[in-house]
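Hi all, a correction to my earlier message: I attached the wrong file for Cytochrome P450. Here's the right sequence:
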Amino acid sequence: MVTIAAAVASVGLVGAVVFCLIKALFAVVEFRKMSHLIKQFPHEPPHFLFGNLLAYPGPNDEGLKFQREMTGKFPRTQSAWSGPFFPMVFVSHPDTVRIILKTSEPKCYRIYHLVEPWIGDGLLLSKGQKWARNRRLLTPAFHFDILRPYLNIKNKAADVFMEKLTRYAERAEYFEVFNDVSMFTLDVILKCAFSYDTDCQQLGEQHPYVKAVFAMSEMAVKRFFQPWFHDDWLYFLTPTGRHFRKCCNQVHEVAEEVIAKRQQVLANSKSVLEEAKNKRRCLDFLDILLTAKDENGKGLTPSEIRDEVDTFLFEGHDTTASAISWAMFSLAEHPDIQAACQAEIDELMAGRQSDDILWDDLSKLPYLTMCIKEALRLHSPVPFIQRELTQDTDIDGHIAPAGTEFRPERFSEENSNSRHPYAFIPFSAGPRNCIGQNFAMHEIKTVLAKMLHRFTLVLDPNHKVERFESVVMKTKTGIRMKAVPR
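and the right structure:
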């Protein structure tokens, strides 16, 4: 019996070894095929171990300059290796970009999985049938009828921000733009997502939820530039990884508590609209999620609702803060253009008792809109749009000349009509474009219009601004300016 058992064990061991060898062989064959395909694209010779990483100056202004030079050198497409095993293909011409973005290929998992413990399997990370179903269910949450009442929230949050700028102005004090703008966008997104008031613009990071969100954002950025910690198993053994998980749990507990309470309230109400009226609030993102039903009458599960709320917060906080901050920088850098925006806003506000932005006002600020789009072009909040191809894709194209001068007229109606639809995509494009782009643009217009109506922005002449590419476009040194009352 012992001999038979030993023989069976030996056969099992041999089978396991053979299975592993076959899998390894298939992996080698697939890797060689992929390497052969990647080599067909124009490229710089990669290092056998580091790939093309050694040539990259870093996520700063020099790195951005390097990327422009590479785009000029390879006028069609370019391949590069991140280490010995991870190839990438860079495309920048609208025609080649369209090939990638017109499909619903998933986001690059190697990058975005770093925040998966936080945002779960929401629209940003989900794929296939789940992504398609949930995208259909969430689209009504961004209909204009839903977005219109949010403008009141944005105006009130902007007023709190303006009070802070007034205090800076009274002291003729230069302030760091990103910090205050980030608190403003977080204030807006929390109230619009699930009517959660943290008073973060006044309290800063004193609120535990706000502290956890900012800590996770900072840790995710640091981990992005530490590829040796991209493996979850290793990362969560470190003190930073354990702290990240602790912050995730804090944020999830708050979201789950709010969701459970809202579900209980809705169970005793005839409709979400009735509940919202009783609470004297507008319908928020959570209301839409709780009542969304697919074609089979099935709604989202509690975990799916939490994932989508956290994804909405993640995507609508830092990116919008980056867009507003760089728009403020661009306008302060060009006083004549800033003055033209102010003249447009003053004309709109003439004779009013309040400078609140009304719904119809959003379409009556064409020059400000052009300036916002030009700032998005020069300082894109999301430096790279990444996709993970699930099938072989034929890519070809030509390079378009890039401009570095701030010139809002690029986005005049005439110039926009003649532009390739994939030449300017700050919110991505195609099926997986940013579902909240109108929400974001309304927020940016509202706060900038109020700001420019009350103040003139002046950069600190003794402070050098250095861009820093991370998950969103930020700065290594911050942006310092002062607000001069008009």
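Sorry for the mix-up. The mean pLDDT is 81.
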